[in-house]
Design brief:
With about 270 residues, the chain is an alpha/beta fold. It is about 25% helix and about 20% strand. The longest helix has 23 residues.
């Protein structure tokens, strides 16, 4: 698709949890996103149990979408031990699944990883004690390193980080305190800040907050489907971000009414009407 005035429109949603019975239920959502955007980004938990049959249903739901589709896997996509097959099926359908790599689309770079858990800030789990805990922390560190490498390889002025787990606590607020350490890791925040990402989108926190910022002000949006259904109760649940290709901060597009507002000021509802 052609750029709209040197702006790339990115539609984002996560946690669609496609199951064997989802045939026909997701296609309308994707079709409306295609009307509003140039790129569709899927932020993990693409399937419900990580089954090949679920991936085939999702591939059929996406088959009519004539725009680039990219995304990352989520924890549900690993549940049955067939993550590689899920990736292959979606790849054959034209979905670019990112895992520590990046892709440039019309002048905007996208870096993606699943991410991992571990908690945030001074209360993040540290690599100390039993081997199983050290292994847990190592997984979080390795995901952060993959994100760093992906961002570093991009040569675009504007970079978008695509995750499943959150890099900040702010977008998992409202979730029970007991599960917050399992919803993300602040280890993901450091490479985002270092490489000056324009925008971060993630899922996973079904009852989290819709948006927040990293410590350096990078806007972070929780686009988990349940969050967007609550936020846009009378509209198709996805968000659209307009990213200037040359320079400047990304903006979110309202369904109608006033002109889009810079994320640097405040976020505006971006679901399709």
């Amino acid at each position: 698709m052609a750029l709209n005035g040197h702006v790339l429109r990115v539609a984002a949603v996560g946690d669609v949890h496609c199951s064997k019975s989802s045939q026909g239920t997701l296609q309308p959502l994707f079709a409306r996103a295609a009307e509003r955007a140039d790129v569709l980004v899927l932020c993990g938990d693409l399937t419900d149990y990580g089954l090949a049959d679920e991936a085939r249903v999702l591939a059929r739901e996406l088959s009519g979408i004539k725009m680039p589709v990219l995304g990352v896997l989520g924890n549900h996509d690993f549940e049955s031990g067939h993550a590689e097959e899920v990736c292959a099926i979606l790849g054959e359908a034209g979905v670019r699944v990112l895992d520590g790599d990046g892709v440039e689309i019309q002048g905007v770079g996208f870096a993606g990883v699943k991410g991992f858990a571990g908690g945030f800030g001074s209360r993040a789990l540290q690599s100390w004690g039993e081997p199983v805990l050290k292994s847990f922390v190592r997984e979080a560190v390795e995901e952060a390193l993959k994100l760093e490498a992906a961002l570093a390889r991009l040569r675009t002025a504007q970079r978008v980080a695509v995750l499943h787990y959150s890099p900040i606590r702010a977008t998992v607020e409202n979730e029970p305190d007991e599960i917050m350490p399992f919803l993300g890791s602040s280890r993901l925040e450091e490479p985002i800040n270092r490489y000056g990402a324009a925008l971060v989108v993630h899922g996973h926190a079904h009852h989290g907050a819709p948006e927040g910022r990293t410590s350096t002000g990078v806007p972070v949006f929780n686009v988990a489907l349940p969050v967007l259904k609550a936020l846009f109760a009378d509209q198709p649940p996805f968000r659209v971000f307009e990213i200037p290709v040359d320079a400047g901060p990304p903006i979110t597009s309202p369904p109608s009414g006033p002109a889009p507002t810079s994320i640097a000021t405040r976020a505006v509802e971006a679901a399709a009407p």
